[in-house]
Amino acid sequence: MIGLVVPSAAEMGPCGPIRSACDAKIVSPNGPDDEMGPVRFAWLELTPHCNLRCLHCYADSTPERRASTAMEVADWKRTLRVLNERRCAGIQFIGGEPMLHPAFEELVSFSRSLAFARIEVFTNGTALTDNNIDFLSQHGVHLNVSVYSHDAAAHDHVTGVDGSWQRSMAGLQRAVGRLSMHCAVVAVASNTEPSDTVEFLRGIGISSISVHQTRPVGRGITVTRGESKTCGQCNSGCIAIGYDGLVRPCVFRREEILASVDDYLTG
After folding, report:
1. Relative to the CA of 248, which of 38, 83, 145, 260 has its CA 20 to 30 Å away?
2. In the beta sheet, which residues pair with residue 211?
3. Residue 37 falls within a domain, yes or no?
């Protein structure tokens, strides 16, 4: 099985680890043999449900939101199977908080049974326990964790949930040395100095770190100044498949629909 190289912070671009494996051309909704070429990386947005309510969330996720019934577990498995058949190299489970999806471990296990070169999970870190860290390690999953500050009060202000910093840091410290892990420090307007947060993370044993700006998408509109919605590399071998049963070119281009999941998979 071929592997994908984890890019450095400089190589990741402004969208950071949320698109770290994009490296080819996008598949057209017309199918895998379309002249536009194959997808290499897919975001799988399992749910809008999250245990935090971050100021800048592009997906407008909250603890109250729940996924529609457009994508059941069988639909996600079908999607994974077709992506694998079309030689998609990498996938990333995102949300919301993907680890809160009731079938999260089932879908990770199913993904590992296929031939994906890279499986990623983008998480806020609050749900990391010794048991699920062992599970993720056994399945060769790479973790991407968003962090907003080394200061607990500043981080919790961004997430809107008291105690979230403590829970995230506890999860990170459990995972250090046990999982392949990258931390994305997001410079939210109300945040402290990102460089201090980077140094803090290095101090607890995390070496793969990048700094990113917010995007004017979803709630990010209220805290973003002068940034474009995307990094300018959309349609570069990536697609986003949502819990709503729709396919988009990027998780940040939410208004732009390529196809329904059913049309995409059967096209």
Report:
1. 145
2. 185
3. yes
Question: What is the domain extent for residue 22?
Answer: 18-266
What radius of gyration, in Å, describes the C-alpha atoms of the chain? 17
| Domain-embedded: residue 83 | yes
Give buried/exposed letters for 111-137 (b at 16+ CB in 10 A, else e): beeeebbbbbbbbbbbbbeeebbeebe
pLDDT digits (tens, 9 = 90+) for 26-39: 333 434 333 335 78
What pLDDT, on a 0 to 100 scale, did the predictor assign at position 236?
67
Section 56-77 average pLDDT: 88
Going from the C-alpha of 152 to that of each of 175, 182, 213, the distances in angstroms are 19, 20, 20
CA nearest to 169, candidates 126, 202, 132:
126
Paired with 142 in beta bridges are 120, 180
Average pLDDT score over the chain: 83
Cis, peptide link before residue 96, omega less than 30° from 0: yes
- State the CATH number of the domain containing residue 132: 3.20.20.70
Number of domains in the chain: 1
The answer to whether residue 46 is domain-embedded is yes
At 26 the pLDDT is 34
pTM of the model: 0.84
